Amino acid sequence: MGLLRLVLGDQLSAGIAALQDLDPARDVVLMAEVMGECTYVPHHKQKLVLVLSAMRHFAAELAARGVRLDYIRLDDPANTGTLTGEVARAMARHRPTGLVATFPGEWRVLEAMRGWEEALGLPVEIREDSRFLCPLPRFRRWAQGRRQLRMEFFYREMRRETGLLMDADAAPVGGQWNYDAENRRRLERGVVPPPPRRTPPDAVTREVMDLVESRFPANFGTLDAFAWPVTAEEAQAALEDFIAARLARFGDYQDAMASGEPVLFHALVSTSLNLGLLTPRACCEAAEAAFRAGRAPLNAVEGFIRQILGWREYVRGLYWLKMPDYAATNALEATRPLPWSWWGGETRMNCLKQVVRQTRDLAYAHHIQRLMVTGNFALLAGLDPAPVNEWYMAVYADAFEWVELPNTHGMALHADGGVIASKPYAASGAYINRMSDYCRGCAYDVKAATGPDACPMNALYWDFLARHERRFGGNPRLAMPLRALRAMPPAKREALRAQAAAFLAGPEMRPEA
Ligand code: FAD
Ligand code: SF4
């Protein structure tokens, strides 16, 4: 036989590196559903269904192309439950001359892969994942010698390199690199987001749903609303739906939050991108084409392209640059356990309730909900980064460590001490009130900072600044709130501290069961 070619659950792209130069007559493609990958965090049921169903669909497409496939199902009695075990078994079955794999999305998996050559006694080639727009060596070159690794400068280089949204004279279209300042509108009354296209589960997905319900009955989340694309064709249809119906207002309402509107004008493409059903270039080019055809304004298209060409590539580069030490940092020395409300327990905080409920039902929350509701709360309350990272890895259908960790650990929790963000994204209830309607339906009073019904975000915000006053004292981006803190009469500061302490010791913070 020829080579054994491994395809992982988030490598479901026809052009994936491990399948390039495949010899259909001699090579075998190995795909394995293993318990270890299903349980290393307690994944949301929709995430399990999404990955397993997408793998089965991809395998069927390969088989239809005449590829020799060795597909191991989760319920195969001989399944060893680990990737390493399944590679070893496949080697015994096929006796290949070598193994070809694509660079994985998690440090943990790379570590295992690096041991295979020695443990299994055959040559292992791990190829660069060519689906990204910035190869890792290119990112390393960009990062080398820089004191600060700011996304904005990386993004400009990527715009120049790819030519996306650039004029013929090498200047950014419209004369500006970034239109973020125009992308901060609250959802006004009368603006009704169009419902996104749903991809109803087919027979393969329904079979996986039964499997997941029977093998993982206690996992967080419900399957009733499952509507994720599980094939490249479905993912393309979902992208086209976004471009036609929501892209034009994506920019304006990018930071808005609204009760009963989980998606607003967002793209819902992260699961498809992360699994490999869509390529980042195709998403960016589709958005640019809509702009050039006059179907979407520049602030929307630039904002969308920046998320994919900028943020997505940047966090991947940082993850691989900084791991494995990155995950263990805890710059703000946060140690509080995760409250039970994050797993659906009772809370009077409407913002938290809305985001957790939506996450349970859809395995989705948009960026500002993740950053400024749960993320902000975790930052202010000093939640331990490890369980917070695990929660984000578990509950979102698009969560893979290379993208989840920098966003949670770095951007939301500032646990990396400022590698990603030059200041912590800390905000009081006023921000949530400005960008959402959550406070109107809340038992707490967003205008109050102390007293029995005061919004907890307010006292926690001031308490956070006071706790870290020395650390952030020299940060010009926090100069204004720190000045306000210092101008407070001591009695007010003490009242805020006591309010925060009472909340943190109270029933809302009961740890997870
Ligand atoms: P849109 O808002 O429509 O954006 C379009 C695309 O841009 C997204 O699909 C995504 O691919 C990309 N993108 C946008 N922001 C980011 C970002 N900050 N980092 C990387 N890519 C970005 N994204 C994940 O894919 N997986 C995660 O596990 C994940 N965890 C996150 C955790 C926290 C605490 C935060 C603050 C953000 C996280 N993000 C994660 C980024 C972002 O929230 C999601 O990509 C986005 O909400 C997905 O929904 P969408 O496709 O509708 O995105
Ligand atoms: Fe959240 Fe405070 Fe607003 Fe309630 S009042 S929704 S707790 S920000």
UniProtKB/TrEMBL annotation:
The record's listing under Pfam families reads: DPRP
Name the source's superkingdom. Answer: Bacteria
Q: Which InterPro entries match?
A: Crypto/Photolyase_FAD-like_sf, PhrB-like, Rossmann-like_a/b/a_fold, UV-DNA_repair_photolyase
- Coiled-coil region: none
This protein's record includes keyword RNA-binding: no
Please name the GO terms that the record assigns under molecular function.
lyase activity
Keywords of this entry = Lyase
Q: Which PANTHER family match?
A: SLR1343 PROTEIN
Protein name according to UniProt = Deoxyribodipyrimidine photolyase-related protein
Identify the species of origin. Answer: Belnapia rosea
Q: What is the lineage of its organism?
A: Bacteria, Pseudomonadati, Pseudomonadota, Alphaproteobacteria, Acetobacterales
